[in-house]
Amino acid sequence: MIKFTNDELQIVKKLEILKNEAGSHSPSIITFRQKLPEVEIKVDACFLSNPYATDLFLEYFDEEILKSGKIRDLLECYPSQNGVIAEILAEFLQINAKNIFIGNGAIEIIQAVIHNFTRRKIMINIPTFSSYYEYVKEGVEVVYNELSKDNDYGLDVDSYIELVKLHRPDTIVLINPNNPNGAYTRIKDVQRILDELSFVDNVIIDESFIHFAYETENYQLVSLAHLVEKYPNLIVLKSMSKDFGIAGIRAGYGIMKESYVKSLLDSGYLWNSNGFAEYFFRLYTQKDFAVKYDKVRIKYIVETLEFIHELKQLPGIKVYPSMANFVLIELMDGIKSTDFVSKLLITYGIYIRTCDDKIGLKGQFIRLASRSKMENDYIIQSLKACIEMNVILDLVNETTG
Q: What are its E.C. numbers (predicted)?
């Protein structure tokens, strides 16, 4: 049982209020600094991003925008329209521009797609990213496919296909790798789902964490984006904040059939990107940036694998398999997730996410993001100290009891 001083308990109460205000998402660092200035956050292991990619972006931004004086253009001029930015991406992604929809973050695309194209019934795997069921319109039936804890919350493809055939929804959602556990479904299995479920109107594949997944020894990128023309019911969504460390810019894209893109553009998504997002997309397609980014992507993957290996050596926790830049951790020995998260934040300045609000999880869970090597080392040391302190307190309680 984790103990708090009276002063710490006051902070714990404030943390609870902040989390309740944020709903099913986590309060941002900026919100924390505004509403809880007495807590110093040293490591943000709640929000999911590659810090090395952020460093790379800032190098280019400093040279190309700040030092050149072009920052005025980003502030004073309107950004390009949705279709123009799609054309920028098209050649780089080798996708027809008419199949690309640019979003103000992937969250906007999730909402737009579900609101506009899901008419009757949607099937969603749980646990998963909550927006997929929160954005469902009134009158649309939601069917949950509860992932098995015994299977580490991975997708059983055979059972999944049979369940979809049974319920026959018009929309299904597969986050790959999944959030919050990082389980990955191999490309051949996803293609099998597409082949066998052609009757489903919308097959949403969320690849927001795909840059951390791999199927070869050289960590080569994998994606289904190029299959949209082959499978007209396929909708591939991509957030850019996780792999490029630019959550504040709000950039994402969706790849889908041309009629869907046209329908969304006709609905008013003409200028939904800002100048900074447009700059990022133009930078993203530069060959020299792409080469440098791939190096920091692989560096981050390797360090994340080392981080996960070290986490698995710690007592009192179960680390679930992940091919994303985070892990789902189950707390054992009676440790409450809210207490553990609060203690790590107050004592060590480490901000992580409790998973109490994730439907489909049974137990005490936290989600922990991988950061830089130095930050990961600090996280390991702090987790170990927090767990050991809990063990000592339990022994004291047993002795005095």
A: 2.6.1.-
